[in-house]
């Protein structure tokens, strides 16, 4: 860290710059001050990179993903503007060196330090993957180390590097999963491979597939060959980590542990209190101390002292960021995600989004959880027999469950079993369609025989979108910029129609191959898919709005009986006596999930991002058989549990994948469970 020179900028975006931190491939990095006086690392992105369409596209999507992630080991993305005269990106500031420099300067870390490092990074990846995100570029350069532990940085850059022709080759091959090098699907398992490489480097000072100590002199092509074909060199690892790192470095992604399982094997999340100062060896601790002293000498007069170890240095607070209106998805994906992350106050109204409060919190001014102009029914329905038509959906924060029936939608605080609001719909479909929440939870859209009914929970006012069409399903895009409508009959039959949530005008349509009756976006915003009433599932890539392909057969399952895995993971569909993961671009089966005999056949399926599990509702046609099957997504193997999953149908999964709700087939009531199938709530009126 050094003071600025006269040739350097003193402001980027709304951040005042006070010191130079260093430089990288993308440009110089500065210590900045946000408008509310908090420190930030502000990168001046080189104009040629900011102008690279591949980089801009990848960054926009990654920025939307990064906005969903928050944890003590992941400094947040605070703002960015690649279209500014001086492009910039700002993240939370960490007063510590990167792991690469720490090990090169102070030598390999001892076992106790490695275990703390591993637990912190595994927790960071668990949170990241739980939001349906993948880092893609985990390496020692993207791990900062301060007195409180490791910090995983680089969120928002991984896909930009992958999508940019100019930067694609800058990713170090020794830390890149073999499936990435071979050009195959990006999955969370790739981050576990990278984590194994990072931990081996921290323990030995070398990467697992390099010929010698990491020096940058090894031929990259030779490293790639070793990553693809040769086993890793695990010598020098302590016994406590050897098997775990070896499992992470398995060539086959399905053989690697998930971040959650790795964290469990390591002893679970670290305690809330900060570690003792001697968690690092003396030479490494001295490097952290030097970084802190550099901060104090240059920045403390402006920013004050460093937060004490363990204090959250990244509280949600207002920070600058570009505000642009319009339907262009990539721009909204990046801009609105940043606004959601930094907590800009605002709510959706029927004139469109004015900002966001993040997917995990509601910006609606509700009193005691109730929209005053939308009173709940005096005697809400809580018993749903087998012939009762009902659909369920969670709010973005998972705290509210929407129960859609033939007279509208009732909103429940499922933890307290309290009905909090009712949204009437005298034009509801039979069967009803699941209600769709906007990302901030303030708008609810219902399908109807005459358009989509969109209700503002803050005011109780409603408006009809596409009144000239029968709308069979609705979904808001994760950035809040679009409302997607599946329609039946009339103009545009067989298309997914997109409406701007600012103007509520139609801005485009996506071609299907038949009548569409259910819609859902992946949480990362990369893919939108719709179930066809004839039995298929069509998927589109939101970037460029082109069709990926069609999954042709779901063996008679309902239009909503499918789920889409974030990233390039594919579509989950029931087919016959099993669930299949299908690549929609080829309609080829990638993996199968087979339930035990005697519990029925799959009629609905959901994917849990938080646990990397696949859950299927099972029913026996013409019988009383019912149950639920649970599998590990990566391997397709049945989940080894000590509990018997309840028989639920229909089912709904919370956006973060931590809760599942459904109608219990034995009792006819609606229950909410966690991923251990512990009963969390019951709608009892």
UniProtKB/TrEMBL annotation:
Protein kinase domain location: 15-280
Alphabetized UniProt keyword annotations: ATP-binding, Kinase, Membrane, Nucleotide-binding, Transferase, Transmembrane, Transmembrane helix
PROSITE patterns: PROTEIN_KINASE_DOM
TM region(s), chain numbering: 328-350
Molecular function in Gene Ontology: kinase activity
Keyword Nucleotide-binding attached: yes
Coiled coil segments of this chain: none
Protein name: Protein kinase
Originating species: Nocardiopsis changdeensis
């Amino acid at each position: 860290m050094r003071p600025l020179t006269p040739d350097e900028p003193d402001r980027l975006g709304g951040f005042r710059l006070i010191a130079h931190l260093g430089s990288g491939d993308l440009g110089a990095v500065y210590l900045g001050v946000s408008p509310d006086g908090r420190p930030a690392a502000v990168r001046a992105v080189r104009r040629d990179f900011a102008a690279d369409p591949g980089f801009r596209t990848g960054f926009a999507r990654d920025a939307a993903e990064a906005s969903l992630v928050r944890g003590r080991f992941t400094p947040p993305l605070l703002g960015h503007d690649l279209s500014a005269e001086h492009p910039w990106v700002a993240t939370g500031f960490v007063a510590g060196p990167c792991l690469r420099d720490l090990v090169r300067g102070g030598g390999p870390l001892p076992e106790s330090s490695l275990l703390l490092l591993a637990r912190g990074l595994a927790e960071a990846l668990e949170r990241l993957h739980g939001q349906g995100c993948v880092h893609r570029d985990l390496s020692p350069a993207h791990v900062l180390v301060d007195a409180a532990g490791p910090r995983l940085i680089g969120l928002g850059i991984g896909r930009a590097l992958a999508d940019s022709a100019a930067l694609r080759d800058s990713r170090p091959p020794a830390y890149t999963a073999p499936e990435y090098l071979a050009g195959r699907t990006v999955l969370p398992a790739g981050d576990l491979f990278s984590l194994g490489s990072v931990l081996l480097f921290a323990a030995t000072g070398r990467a697992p597939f390099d010929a010698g100590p990491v020096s940058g002199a090894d031929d990259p092509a030779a490293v790639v060959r070793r990553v693809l074909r040769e086993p890793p060199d695990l010598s020098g690892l302590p016994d406590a980590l050897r098997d775990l790192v070896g499992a992470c470095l398995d060539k086959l992604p399905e053989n690697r542990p998930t971040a959650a399982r790795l964290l469990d094997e390591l002893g679970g999340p670290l305690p809330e209190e900060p570690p003792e100062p001697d968690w690092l060896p003396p030479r490494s601790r001295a490097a952290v101390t030097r970084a802190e002293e550099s901060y104090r000498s240059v920045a403390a007069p402006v920013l004050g002292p460093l937060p004490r170890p363990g204090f959250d240095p990244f509280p949600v607070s207002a920070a600058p960021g570009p505000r642009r209106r319009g339907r262009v998805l990539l721009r909204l994906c990046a801009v609105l995600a940043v606004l959601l992350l930094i907590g800009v106050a605002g709510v959706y109204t029927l004139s469109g989004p004015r900002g966001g409060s993040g997917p995990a919190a509601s910006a609606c001014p509700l009193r005691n959880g109730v929209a005053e102009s939308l009173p709940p029914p005096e005697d809400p329905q809580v018993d749903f027999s087998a012939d009762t038509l009902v659909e369920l959906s969670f709010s973005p924060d998972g705290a509210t469950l929407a129960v859609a029936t033939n007279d509208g939608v009732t909103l429940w605080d499922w933890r307290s079993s309290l009905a909090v609001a009712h949204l009437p719909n005298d034009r509801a479909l039979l069967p009803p369609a699941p209600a769709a929440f906007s990302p901030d939870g303030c708008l609810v859209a219902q399908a109807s025989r005459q358009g989509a009914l969109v209700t503002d929970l803050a005011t109780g006012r409603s408006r009809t979108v596409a009144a000239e069409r029968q709308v069979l399903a609705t979904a808001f895009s994760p950035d809040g910029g679009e409302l997607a409508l599946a329609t039946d009959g009339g103009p545009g039959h067989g298309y997914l129609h997109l409406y701007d949530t600012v103007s509520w005008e139609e801005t485009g349509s996506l071609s299907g191959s038949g009548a569409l009756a259910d819609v859902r976006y992946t949480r990362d915003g990369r893919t939108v898919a719709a179930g066809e009433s004839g039995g298929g599932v069509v998927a589109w890539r939101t970037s460029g709005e082109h069709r990926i392909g069609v999954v042709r057969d779901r063996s008679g399952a309902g239009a909503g009986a499918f789920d889409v895995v974030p990233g390039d993971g594919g579509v989950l569909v029931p087919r016959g006596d099993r669930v299949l993961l299908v690549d929609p671009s080829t309609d080829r089966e990638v993996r199968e999930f087979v339930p035990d005999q005697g519990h029925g056949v799959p009629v609905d399926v959901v994917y849990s991002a938080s646990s990397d599990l696949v859950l299927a509702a099972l029913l026996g046609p013409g019988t009383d058989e019912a149950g639920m099957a649970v599998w590990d997504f990566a391997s397709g193997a049945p989940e080894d549990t000590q509990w018997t999953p309840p028989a639920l149908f229909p089912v709904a999964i919370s956006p973060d994948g931590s809760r599942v709700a459904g109608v219990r087939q034995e009792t006819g009531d609606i229950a909410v469970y966690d991923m251990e199938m512990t009963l969390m709530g019951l709608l009892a009126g």
